[in-house]
Structure prediction request, 351 residues.
Amino acid sequence: MSINHIVTPLDSAVLDSKDQYVFYHKKVDFALKELITSVQFNKLCTEQEMTYFKQYCDLLLYSIEAMRVKYMYDDEDNMKVDLTNSGFPNYLEFRYLYNDLSLRDNYLNKLKDVSELQEEFLTQLMHKKEPVRRDKLFQAASIVYYTSVEQKYIFNRFVQGKITQAEAGSQAEYMVSWSFYDVALNRPFICFMYFNYDGKNPESIKEELYDTLKNVADRKMPLDTMAYGIDRRLKDVKPKHIKRIDLGPFHNIFAKDENILTHSILESIAKKEVPLESYALSFKVDEVLSGSEFKEGGYFSKQTLQKWSDIIKQNYVFAPHRIIQLLYNKNPEIMNKLAKPPFQVADLKMK
Prediction:
């Protein structure tokens, strides 16, 4: 099926042709790399945050590339892209990858020897003058997938970063980062928490801290609720500043949600006002800061907790120049409320 005739259900799109795989993966890879460059250039993260932001995005890119290799020639399974408010692969695709790679050795033992497969390819191409059969291409892709993809680099539902000394000028002495893929929204989030610690070395409470983040900060919720949950569980940790970045939605031909920006782009693609490759990426930053403190609990179990500021919400959009013009023309009420004017990124050119 041609990429010009993509038909999808309401909640997810099944990529069921080589053209669609190439098109989708090229688009996501290009948009995320443009995003990384632009976030750094426009200083939406500090230098320290940017280091971790790149690492989490690299895990995401690595996982999506692994999906491309795994599914390209597979006639039985097809990759699903979430359409509800995401444009990114469905969370289950990451879970399948992770679980599948746990059985790597079992699959490798069943695959043909590389030299034997190479000989078959040469016979088919050079002697029979015929294209290589799809099932043989799938075998070759499987060898590449199971011998080169590392399970530890797959973007999981929750990815924990390390505790580090916060850079000069920060709200607190230490910083910890983490990332999660929200199961309901099918979008990646990246978080940073700046905190003080009453003890000598925060490494002594890292297991408790990591466990807390994994249990109470692994999905989208009001940021002050997340901050309170973290603060309440960690008696010796004093959170001072929490920052959460929401990557998405990714507005493109594969995202048929009710988002106004997505709808505007799809409408223009349908009218051939903009090319099929057109895209935009929403990017949201929520932050809370602690002010004074208060005590909670009974006489024998009082705990000092932080009072949090109102949530500081900043919405941004990244898009090529033509799409920025289009969105201003169609949705000025949204574009004029952004924290900053839209950030221009490069056009994707498909040959």
The two ends are 18 Å apart (CA to CA). The chain has a mean pLDDT of 84.
